[in-house]
Amino acid sequence: MSLHHLAEHPRQPLLDDTFLQRLSREMGEGAEQLDRDSAFPHGNLARLRQYGLLGLACDVRAGGGGADLAQLRRVVGAVAKGEPSTALVLCMQYLYHRRLADNPNWPEALKRRVIREAVEEGALINSLRVEPELGSPARGGLPQTVARRQADGWILDGHKLYTTGIPGLTWLAVWARSDDPVPLVGTWLVHRDTPGIRIVESWDHLGMRATGSHEVIFENVQLPLEHAVDVYPADQPPALNAPALADFNRGMATLLGAIYDGAARAARDWLVQWLAERTPASLGAPLSSLPRVQEVVGQIEGLLLANRLQLDALSRQALSSQEAGLIKVAVTENAVSVVEKALELTGNHGLSLHHPLQRHYRNVLCGRVHTPQRDSALVLAGKTAFGLVKG
Question: Whole-prediction pTM value?
Answer without folding.
Answer: 0.94
